[in-house]
Amino acid sequence: MGKGGLFSYKSTGTATTKAEASAILPTLPAQVYIQIASESQRVKANEITTQLQQKGFVMPGIENMAGKGADMPKNTNVRYFNDEDKQTAEAIVAILKEAGITTAYAYPVSKYKVKAGGLEVWFSADVH
Q1: Phi/psi at 112 (nearest 5 deg)?
Q2: More confident residue, 18 or 29
Q3: How many CB atoms within 10 Å of residue 102?
Q4: pTM as predicted
Q5: Do the bridges between strand 105-108 and strand 77-80 make them parallel or antiparallel, or are there none, so unpaired?
């Protein structure tokens, strides 16, 4: 069962299932999605994906945002949507900096509702 099912139990289940879901959720690995500004960044994105997988993160995929109307950041950022994910975002920033992406930083986003453990890495155009 994934985080989605556990969140459902946590909010609608019996007292026992709520307690069990609350205990399990923090132990599940974060899911990190990578957004790239162009196809030329895919090699670097694959390198980062491998590094994060080795640290235990779940990496669902890499999305090329070229031509999709997305405003790519001036600096690479790790977007987190819940306060409890801030430390995870900062840990990912440290990994990015070790990999040579020195302008990376953690970026809180509050306008979207995302389940805890869901983070996004948005590459700036200068990453290669």
Answers
A1: -120, 145
A2: 29
A3: 10
A4: 0.79
A5: parallel
